[in-house]
Write a structure and sequence with these properties.
- This protein has 91 residues and is mainly α.
- The protein has four helices and no strands.
- Helix 2 (24-40) packs across helix 3.
- The protein starts with 7 loop residues before the first helix and ends in a 24-residue tail after the last helix.
- Mean pLDDT is 75; it is low at 79-84.
């Protein structure tokens, strides 16, 4: 650990950098998926970009952490991801 805390902006900058350096076909696939989601679930998509989107943030962070699990060396990283889904109809 460093003396200086890692802030969310640092995580977001690293994510943006990783996406920019990703293969163009992978970036296009992500862009296409986001476009399709914004069309199919417009209300959810635009709400998720708003200030009160904890569920979307959780799903996004889970996907990012899962995507980072295996590095280029093929070694597993020491990151724990817990996926929990609520049963249908339960609050």
């Amino acid at each position: 650990m460093s003396d200086k805390p890692t802030l969310l902006l640092s995580v977001l900058d690293a994510l943006e950098d990783a996406l920019k350096h990703c293969a163009p076909d992978k970036r296009k696939a992500l862009a296409d998926a986001l476009d399709a989601y914004s069309g199919d679930c417009a209300e959810d998509f635009w709400w998720a970009l708003g200030q009160q989107s904890p569920t979307m943030l959780h799903a996004l962070m889970t996907a990012i952490v899962s995507g980072c699990q295996t590095g280029s060396s093929g070694a597993k990283r020491n990151v724990v991801v817990r996926l929990v889904r609520k049963p249908e109809g339960k609050e």
